[in-house]
Amino acid sequence: MSEFYISAIPTDVNWQPTTDTADAAEAYVRRIFPDPDGTLQEVEVEFHDRIRVVHPGESLERITCPRCSGDIPLDWFQDLVEEAEEEFDSLDVTVPCCSALVPLDTLHYDWPCGFARFEIGIRDACRPEYEFTDEELAELAGILGHPVRQILAHF
Ligand SMILES: [Zn+2]
Asked: Could you name the domain of life of the organism this protein comes from (predicted)?
């Protein structure tokens, strides 16, 4: 069974809101993603001590290098993430294509992959347009006081 997950994350990988601000952001997300039954979807707010990979799941098909534009094998990335147990203190890695030292969040991911220490996620959103609109992301950024972007995942 496949599962859809949508995450809103700060654009700065290290940024975290206060708990009050996170509560306000969660209330907003629950308002724009209504769940009539209260049982069909899950809204999850998470603070991570270290930088967490926000993985797009099966939608990740290709990774390329920002330095040499070469392809980076998906297996290399999956192994790296698995070995790190999805958490990093530093995103700097030596890429296999050209041996450059580059931060993981600067690689080109198709679909987009995120890195964050704060996350608001919606699992199996009830509403049909399950992505955040640009206006909603702007509103959420206003509540948090920091720009956010969304990562769509399919498992
Ligand atoms: Zn390269």
From this structure: Bacteria
The domains of the chain are located at: 1-59+111-155, 61-110
**Single-letter amino acid code for the residue at 98:** C
Task: Report residue 115 as tokens.
Answer: 């890195």
In this predicted model, what pLDDT tens digit does every residue of 74-104 receive, in sequence order? 999 999 999 999 999 999 999 999 999 999 9
Kindly report the average pLDDT of the chain as a whole number. Answer: 95
Look at residues 77, 134, 137 and name the one whose alpha carbon lies nearest to residue 109: 77
- How many CB atoms are closer than 10 A to CB 66? 12
Q: How many angstroms does the Cα of residue 88 sit away from the middle of ligand 1?
A: 21
Which of 22, 43, 18 shows the shortest CA–CA distance to 32? 43
What CATH architecture is 1-59+111-155?
2-Layer Sandwich (3.30)
